[in-house]
Design brief:
Elements lengths: L5 H6 L6 E4 L9 H9 L6 E3 L20 E5 L6 H9 L1 E5 L2 H12 L4 E4 L13 E4 L2 E7 L5 E3 L4 E2 L5 E2 L17 E3 L10 E3 L3 E4 L6 E5 L5 H8 L10 E2 L3
Parallel strand pairs: 1-2, 1-8, 2-3, 3-4, 8-11, 14-15
Antiparallel strand pairs: 5-7, 6-7, 9-10, 12-13, 13-14
């Protein structure tokens, strides 16, 4: 992993590039990075994201004032600006959310396409191949890949491993899997001394991962199994407030 200034990172994105942007309704969306994309007046971008969020926020802001731009998303109806842009300069490909996720996952694992029954016999099937497997019809959906990923991570280590805070997980973990380069704003340059997840709170006194609290109904053994980390688990581990 290589750190750099925000402007220098965004400067690597050329006009006409494709980018996968994390976030769900602007939660976990890298707003600072997107604002810099707008400031540098990047043109002709193809943005792959779950949604168009809301006016002034979210992945679609990268398309402000653009011509020849495209967005691939599962829905845009909650952002009236998206509808206005769609009527003028924006090319929109709407994809069912589950299909969008699986097309993205397929791109990350090097697959060429996926099979889905979603859209069979509807307008969503138009222009796509249909095949029959075990007496069932499936639509062939091409895998999604992008040139860059813009994500909002809570913690990044020096090897490029990313951790996400609570609901900001959403589409962020998928984005870096399908790209050649990933850009994200970092929250700290210091080594991590506390990790908070849905399952547990882990501290690092003297560099040793130590379990401080577990979620209600979660045992230390379950935390160890889920993280595969060498955790110090005291007998008197507290329970996180419900």
């Amino acid at each position: 992993m290589r750190s750099g200034s925000l402007s220098r990172s965004v400067d690597m994105i050329p006009d006409g590039a494709s980018q996968m942007t994390g976030g769900f309704m602007a939660v976990g969306t890298p707003e600072r990075v997107i604002d810099e994309v707008v400031r540098q007046r990047k043109c002709g971008l193809t943005v792959i994201a779950n949604d168009a969020a809301m006016p002034g926020k979210g992945a679609l802001q990268a398309h402000r004032g653009q011509a020849g731009a495209k967005v691939i998303a599962s829905h845009i109806d909650l952002n009236p600006q998206a509808k206005q842009m769609m009527a003028h300069e924006l090319d929109v490909e709407l994809v069912p959310q589950g299909t969008l996720i699986e097309r993205t996952r397929a791109g990350g694992y090097g697959l060429g396409s996926i099979l889905t029954q979603t859209g069979v016999g509807t307008s969503a099937e138009q222009g796509k191949q249909r095949i029959r497997v075990d007496r069932k019809d499936y639509v062939v959906e091409v895998a999604l890949r992008a040139d860059f990923a813009l994500v909002q991570a809570f913690i990044a280590d020096y090897l490029g491993n990313l951790s996400y805070a609570l609901t900001a997980h959403n589409f962020n973990p998928l984005a870096p899997k399908i790209v050649r380069q990933c850009t994200l704003p970092i929250t700290s340059r210091r080594p991590v001394d506390l990790v908070v997840t849905e399952m547990a709170v882990i501290a690092f006194p003297k560099g040793r991962a130590t379990l401080l609290e577990t979620a209600p109904g979660t045992t230390p053994d379950q935390v160890v199994a889920a993280t595969q980390a060498e955790l110090v688990a005291p007998r008197d581990v507290a329970e996180m407030p419900a």
